[in-house]
Amino acid sequence: MFKISRYSEQSKAEWDAFVEESRNATFLFKRSYMDYHSDRFQDHSLMVWKNDNLCGLLPANLTDEDGNRVLHSHGGITYGGLILPSRHIDASDVMEIFGSIRQYCIENNINGLDYKALPYIYATMPSQEDIYAIQNMGGRFTECNLSCCIDMQHNPGYNNQQKRNLKKGISHGLTLHKGVKVEEFHDLLSRCLAERYEACPVHTAAELDLLISRFPENIIIYGVRNDRKLVAAVCLYLSEQVVHTQYICSSLQGRSEGALALLFHELIKEYSGAYRYFDFGTSNEDHGRYLNPGLYRQKSALGGSGVVYPRYYLDFVTSQHQE
């Protein structure tokens, strides 16, 4: 019933239009976002058809290590999954779609699927038929990362420490600013990551500037200043119902003056009417095996609680033999 084809640039408009109407997609699945780092990933995204009608998308890239060809939920995106239309696809259909994807992969000498399921908060309708289908086909759970997220319809608010930090930020006269320049933000972010984690940003300043130019309504940088000095900042990714903190940073001065508490107090207040969730992102290392307790505690102190980012692996050769 379902046919699978590989995405090509000629299908860009059709792909993006489907993402717009989907029940479980965000702007990260638009081709203008996925393709900005096409030099790093061998795109092998799939399109699902029924009677010549597009009814599903799988953002993906392919790796080939010593002949072990694996299809991955796109490596340039934190989450992934099978993108579905808003109606007329049920669980039986999704199971059949995965069967068709498996057959496509077997025919193209692809050994397995490394699948990052979409965290439920990003779907506008319940959309976890994919998880059932993968497990039903013999897929195994390989990775679990934990994000901290505020349900803004049921927000417990700051804990006492963060309330004190907020008062401190107000007392220092800190002010919120929208649309901080990428270069200034990236400089603070780079220094913060180097000092605290011996790390560097995933995006370069040029890449982040490019993405903002392509998605000015979805990617916004906010900062907190003491007079003119930037002491804390965040890069927000806005999808249909989720405010996601892509990057958070603060200087030593900002940490001592309660800058992040003031920053998030203002942002949660600003976005709580139009968005359901405020997602602070994962706090894990080593593919989810290690939880950074201090980092997670800072986020939960702002009112957040746990949302899982799950990952699965489906061995196509094994699942074929099981039938």
In short:
With 323 residues, the chain is of the alpha+beta class. The chain has helices at 12-21, 31-34, 91-107, 129-136, 160-171, 182-197, 205-214, 252-256, 259-271, 293-300, 316-322; strands at residues 3-6, 46-50, 53-58, 60-65, 68-73, 112-116, 140-151, 175-178, 219-226, 229-238, 242-250, 277-282, 284-285, 290-291, 305-315.
Say which CATH homologous superfamily of the largest domain is assigned. Answer: Gcn5-related N-acetyltransferase (GNAT)
Mean pLDDT: 95
What name does CATH use for the topology of the largest domain? Aminopeptidase
Q: What Rg is obtained from the alpha carbons, in whole angstroms? A: 21 Å
- Low-confidence spans: pLDDT under 50, at least 5 residues? none
Helix content: 25-40%
Walk me through the structure.
The chain is an alpha+beta fold and 323 residues long. The chain has two domains: 3-145 and 310-322, Aminopeptidase; 154-275, Aminopeptidase (3-Layer(aba) Sandwich). The chain has helices spanning 12-21, 31-34, 91-107, 129-136, 160-171, 182-197, 205-214, 252-256, 259-271, 293-300, 316-322, and strands at 3-6, 46-50, 53-58, 60-65, 68-73, 112-116, 140-151, 175-178, 219-226, 229-238, 242-250, 277-282, 284-285, 290-291, 305-315. The mean pLDDT is 95.
